[in-house]
Amino acid sequence: MSAALDIRGMSQAFLGREVLSGITLAVDPGEVVALVGPSGSGKSTLIHVAAGLIDPREGRITRRYRRHAMVFQEPRLMPWATAEDNIAFAARLAGQPRRAAREAARAAAAAAHFAAEDLGKFPVELSGGMRQRVAIARALVVRPDFIYFDEPFTALDVALKRRMQDLVLDATGAGHFGAVFVTHDLSEAARVAHRVMVMHPTGQGIDGERRVPGLPGARSEAELFALTQTWLHEDRLFRHIHDVDERRIA
Ligand SMILES: Nc1ncnc2c1ncn2[C@@H]1O[C@H](COP(=O)(O)OP(=O)(O)OP(=O)(O)O)[C@@H](O)[C@H]1O
Ligand SMILES: [Mg+2]
Q1: How far is CA 45 from CA 3, 48, 53, 72, 136, in A?
Q2: Helix or strand or coil: residue 42?
Q3: Which atom of ligand 1 is nearest to the CA of 73?
Q4: H/E element holding 130?
Q5: Does ligand 1 have an atom closer than 6 angstroms to the CB of 183?
Q6: Do residues 33 and 181 touch, judged by C-beta distance below 8 A?
Q7: Does the model's pTM come out above 0.90?
Q8: pLDDT tens-place values along the chain, 250 residues long
Q9: Span from the CA of 101 to the centroid of ligand 2 (angstroms)
Q10: How far is CA 74 from CA 56, 114, 227, in A?
């Protein structure tokens, strides 16, 4: 099977400082790969390069999916447009006629648990979690077969977070999209992903990976709990996961 996303020997530097090196990562169609690592380890940079938003310094990136979407770490909504228009614009850009785009926007908002009565509000009138759900709806509305998620559910409370994870599980279980899913939350990674990649703490690349046993959506709570406890307490690959980036504090 050809990978939907194939990254070979990629490196990236900002202002002469290398933040990623030797990144090789292949994601199969329909596969969800979680990317975990401490703050500053280069997770956002990696997916921005993968999605073609910035060019890598070196390496080759092959994208074999039809259309991707991205859920950014900050929602990045257009402040002058309502929630509905923010979502519908994405559908229009993807080529949908006006009326169809509007209907698709409402359906995507509902799928992202965004209430219909809030669709006329502007971003400034929305809570952080509501804005994040608009951003998720905006990604879903283009019917992507690949999604880059950058800590998409951190602004959500526990119950909503679970429902959004279930949305991802249902969609990927039905083969609708593959994904690279950046998260700080190991239990979230264990729940949604087929495979977990761990970033090196100071951005030297990927330290290693663990395949999550069983299929996403078919793992019990007890299994997930046991697995994350093992990762955290017994698996050295995860030892830096909660480190803080000293350079940011200095
Ligand atoms: N546009 C930029 N210009 C200069 N340096 C940058 C830029 N973007 C990122 N960096 C640096 O690259 C490194 C990796 O940043 P990145 O945002 O990819 O980390 P991250 O793993 O996503 O962190 P977090 O978990 O906090 O979101 C950091 O040291 C950061 O300061
Ligand atoms: Mg980030």
Answers
A1: 21, 5, 9, 11, 19
A2: coil
A3: 27
A4: helix 128-140
A5: no
A6: yes
A7: yes
A8: 799 999 999 999 999 889 999 999 999 999 999 999 999 999 999 999 999 999 999 999 999 999 999 999 999 999 999 999 999 999 999 999 999 999 999 999 999 999 999 999 999 999 999 999 999 999 999 999 999 999 999 888 999 999 999 999 999 988 899 999 999 899 999 999 999 999 998 777 899 999 999 999 899 999 999 999 999 999 999 998 887 655 544 4
A9: 30
A10: 22, 17, 29
The dotted CATH code for 1-66+145-250 is: 3.40.50.300
Do 205 and 25 meet the contact criterion of CB atoms below 8 Å apart?
Answer: no
Amino acid letter, residue 206: I
Count of Cβ atoms closer than 10 Å to residue 28 Cβ? 16
Q: Which ligand 1 atom sits closest to the C-alpha of 199?
A: 21
39 lines ligand 1 (CB under 6 A): yes
Count CB-CB contacts under 10 A for residue 142: 22
Is there an atom of ligand 1 within 6 Å of 12 CB?
no
Scan for tokens 């046991």, then name that residue.
226
Which residue has a Cα nearest atom 16 of ligand 1? 42
Q: Residue 181's closest CA among 50, 19, 23, 86?
A: 50
At which residue do the structure tokens 């700080």 appear?
184
Q: Is 42 in the pocket of ligand 1 (CB under 6 A)?
A: yes
Phi, then psi, of 54 in degrees rounded to 5? -135, 150
Atom of ligand 1 nearest to the CA of 247: 29
